[in-house]
Amino acid sequence: MTTPLSAHDKQLLLKLARESIEAAVSSQPYPHVDPSRLSPDLLRKGASFVTLTEHGELRGCIGGLQPQYPLYEDVLIHAAQAAQYDYRFPPVTPDELLDIELEVSVLTEPQPLDYDLPAELPRRLRPEVDGVILAHGRHRATFLPQVWERVPSPETFLSMLCEKMGVHPDTWRRTKLEVQVYQVENFTESEFEMHQA
């Protein structure tokens, strides 16, 4: 992510995410997009997460950490997946669509975070700035920076992320884990008054 996205591009990504979800819940293919009408920022490879909330509660969130597709396509894919394939929730149904609010997060490339001792790790994190990826053997998990809004303590943040990774919450205290951090540019439909339930 080199330069911030324009307001127009943010709104277009949100619109594409909405159309992708509507298609997915009706078992339709991704909406057709004419790449010649998109800005260079949407055509370059990018990594994104799409988060669905319903009445303020999480309803689905899926994304990727490494750029594999043009950004617009990455958002289309992850919007549909968040609606249909988040293992924590049943698939979104058509009658829920009016109540669902979308957020798109565009990620910077993850960077390794060096530290020597487990006790140092909480102090190396930047609450509300850093998304964090933890890896331990075959286990891996991430929290977006937005999670800091609900979990302001770095120690609790790390323990919850260990749980999400499928290991004991204190693993980060006892073992030096592989840690990467990234930042996001995130935006919602309500920011642009695009979707009123």
Protein described:
The mean pLDDT is 95. The chain has 197 residues and is α+β, with helices and mostly antiparallel strands. It has two domains: 7-108 and 184-192, Hypothetical protein ph0010, domain 1 (Glycoprotein, Type 4 Pilin), CATH 3.30.700.20; 111-182, Dna Ligase, domain 1, CATH 3.30.1490.150. The strands form two sheets. Strands 1, 2, 3, 4 and 9 form a five-stranded antiparallel beta sheet that branches. It has a four-stranded antiparallel beta sheet with strand order 5-8-6-7, covered by helices on one side. α1 packs parallel to α3 (71-84). Helix content is 29%, strand content 25%. It starts with 6 loop residues before the first helix and ends in a 9-residue tail after the last strand. The chain is globular and about 50 Å long. It has helices at 7-25, 40-43, 71-84, 121-124, 154-165, 171-174; strands at residues 45-54, 57-63, 69-70, 100-107, 111-112, 131-136, 139-143, 178-182, 184-188.
Question: Layout of helices and strands, plus pairs?
Answer:
Layout (H helix, E strand, L loop, with lengths): L6 H19 L14 H4 L1 E10 L2 E7 L5 E2 H14 L15 E8 L3 E2 L8 H4 L6 E6 L2 E5 L10 H12 L5 H4 L3 E5 L1 E5 L9
Helix pairs in contact: 1-3
List the keywords:
9 strands; 5-stranded antiparallel β-sheet; 4-stranded antiparallel β-sheet; Glycoprotein, Type 4 Pilin; 29% helix; single chain; Dna Ligase, domain 1; alpha+beta; 197 residues; globular
